[in-house]
C-alpha cells in the first residue's frame, strides 16, 4: 500500500483503459484526481475513491500526472491548449507520464513545453487492454531521464507486471509504434492462415486450438481466438486506431530508412477494411475481410473456448 508520503497523482483520459489503470492506483492507496473530456466517464471512478476535476489545469498541483489520450493533437491540447496542464501561472507537476500512442515529433514538442514549466516527461506507452490489466499482464515501455524513471518506477510497477526502461527521450514511442505495427501484421497473418484452413475444411476452433498448443501459439493468439472463432468483435482496439499506428510506423521507417515490405502490405489491407466501413469493431474483424476475398461467408462457430486470461481474472476488454 502507498504511504501518506506517496505523491498525489493526476490522471488525464479516463476511457475504459485509463479507468482500469486508475482503479489499480486507487486500490494501491494513491490519492488520484481524474480529468476526462466527457466528465461522466471520469465520474464512474468516484465510487472507487477518485476525485474529478473539470480541466486539465486543475491537476497542475499534483506531483505526478498521467495522460492517456487518443492522438498527438489530443496530447498537445490537454497539455498546452486552453486550460491545459501547463497553463497554470502557479503550479506545474513534477513529472508527466504520458501513456498515449503518439508520434515522436508530438512527444518532443510536449517534452519541450513540459521542461519550460519545470516538469519532467516520461513516455510510457502500454501493451494491453482492460482485461489484460485485470489479469495482471500489462507491460510498459518507458523512456526519458533515467533518474526520473527511477523516481517514478514504484508507481509504474503498480500498473503492470513488466516495466522496461528503453532509453532517453522519445525511444518508448518508437517501441510502442513497432509493437502496434507487429500487432497488425500478426492479426492479418492469423486471419489469413485461419481462413485458408477453413476453406480446406478445418473448423476455426480446431485450427486455432492446434496453433495455440504449438510453439507458434502465444498469449495474443489465445486471447484473440474467441473473436476469430465466434466472431465477437467487441472492440479492444479499433481499425482506425490500428491504421493510425501503421501510418506512424511507416513514417518512422521512411525517416530511418528501414524498409518494411510486410508492414506496408498489411497497412493497405487495414486501410481497405476501414474504407469498407469496419470502423467500430475490434481489429480482429480483419478475418471477415480476408474471408470475403477468399469467397467465404463466415458464421460464428459458437464454440466454448477461453481467451486464456479468464483464469487470472479481469474486466471487460477495451482499447
What does this structure look like?
The chain has 319 residues and is of the alpha/beta class. It has 2 domains: 9-169, Rossmann fold (3-Layer(aba) Sandwich); 174-312, Orthogonal Bundle (N-(1-d-carboxylethyl)-l-norvaline Dehydrogenase, domain 2), CATH 1.10.1040. It is built from 12 helices and 9 strands. The protein has helices at residues 16-27, 39-43, 72-80, 104-116, 130-134, 146-159, 171-199, 204-213, 219-230, 239-256, 261-275, 286-293; strands at residues 9-12, 32-35, 51-52, 64-67, 95-98, 120-123, 126-127, 139-143, 162-167. It has a 6-stranded parallel sheet with strand order 3-2-1-4-5-6, with helices on both faces. Helix 4 (104-116) links the parallel strand 5 (95-98) and strand 6. Helix 7 crosses helix 12. The longest helix is centred in the middle third of the chain and has 29 residues, at 171-199. The radius of gyration is 20 Å and the shape is globular. The model is unreliable at 311-319 (pLDDT under 50).
Counting copies of identical and different chains, the oligomeric state is single chain
What is the N-to-C succession of helices and strands?
EHEHEEHEHEEHEHEHHHHHH
Roughly what fraction of the amino acids lie in strands? 5-15%
> Would you identify the CATH architecture of the largest domain?
3-Layer(aba) Sandwich
At the fold tier of CATH, the topology name of the largest domain is Rossmann fold
State the total count of DSSP E strands.
Answer: 9
**Order of neighbouring strands in the sheet with most strands:** 3-2-1-4-5-6
Q: How far apart lie the N and C ends? A: 28 Å
The biggest sheet, with number of strands, parallel, antiparallel or mixed sense and barrel status, is: 6 strands, parallel
The proportion of residues forming helix, as a percent range, comes to 40-55%
The unreliable regions are 311-319
CATH level-four homologous superfamily name of the largest domain: NAD(P)-binding Rossmann-like Domain
Number of helices: 12
Secondary-structure content class: alpha/beta
Give the overall form.
globular
> What's the alpha carbon Rg, rounded to whole Å?
20 Å
Mean pLDDT: 92
Indicate the CATH class of the largest domain. Answer: Alpha Beta
Count of the separate structural domains? 2
Amino acid at each position: 500500500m502507498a504511504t501518506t508520503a506517496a505523491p498525489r497523482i493526476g490522471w488525464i483520459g479516463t476511457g475504459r483503459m485509463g479507468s482500469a489503470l486508475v482503479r489499480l492506483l486507487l486500490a494501491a492507496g494513491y490519492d488520484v484526481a481524474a480529468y476526462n473530456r466527457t466528465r461522466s466517464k471520469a465520474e464512474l471512478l468516484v465510487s472507487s475513491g477518485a476525485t474529478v476535476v473539470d480541466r486539465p489545469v486543475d491537476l497542475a498541483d499534483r506531483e505526478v500526472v498521467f495522460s492517456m489520450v487518443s492522438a498527438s493533437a489530443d496530447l498537445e491540447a490537454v497539455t498546452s491548449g486552453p486550460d491545459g496542464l501547463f497553463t497554470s501561472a502557479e503550479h506545474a507537476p513534477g513529472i508527466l507520464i504520458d501513456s498515449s500512442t503518439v508520434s515522436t515529433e508530438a512527444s518532443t514538442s510536449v517534452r519541450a513545453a513540459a521542461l519550460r514549466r519545470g516538469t519532467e516527461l516520461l513516455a510510457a506507452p502500454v501493451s494491453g487492454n482492460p482485461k489484460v490489466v485485470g489479469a495482471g499482464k500489462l507491460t510498459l515501455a518507458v523512456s526519458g531521464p533515467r533518474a526520473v524513471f527511477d523516481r517514478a518506477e514504484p508507481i509504474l510497477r503498480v500498473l503492470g507486471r513488466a516495466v522496461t526502461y528503453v532509453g532517453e527521450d522519445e525511444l518508448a514511442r518508437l517501441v510502442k509504434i513497432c509493437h502496434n505495427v507487429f500487432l497488425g501484421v500478426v492479426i492479418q497473418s492469423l486471419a489469413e492462415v485461419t481462413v485458408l484452413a477453413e476453406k480446406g475444411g478445418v473448423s476455426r476452433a480446431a485450427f486455432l486450438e492446434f496453433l495455440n498448443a504449438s510453439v507458434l501459439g502465444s498469449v495474443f493468439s489465445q486471447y484473440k481466438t474467441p473473436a476469430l472463432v465466434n466472431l465477437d468483435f467487441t472492440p479492444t482496439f479499433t481499425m482506425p486506431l490500428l491504421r493510425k499506428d501503421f501510418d506512424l510506423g511507416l513514417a518512422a521507417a521512411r525517416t530511418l530508412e528501414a524498409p518494411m515490405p510486410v508492414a506496408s502490405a498489411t497497412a493497405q489491407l487495414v486501410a481497405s477494411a476501414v474504407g469498407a466501413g469496419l470502423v467500430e469493431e475490434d481489429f480482429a474483424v480483419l478475418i471477415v475481410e480476408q474471408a470475403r476475398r477468399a469467397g467465404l461467408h463466415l458464421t460464428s462457430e459458437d464454440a466454448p473456448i477461453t481467451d486464456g486470461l479468464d483464469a487470472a481474472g479481469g474486466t471487460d476488454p477495451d482499447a
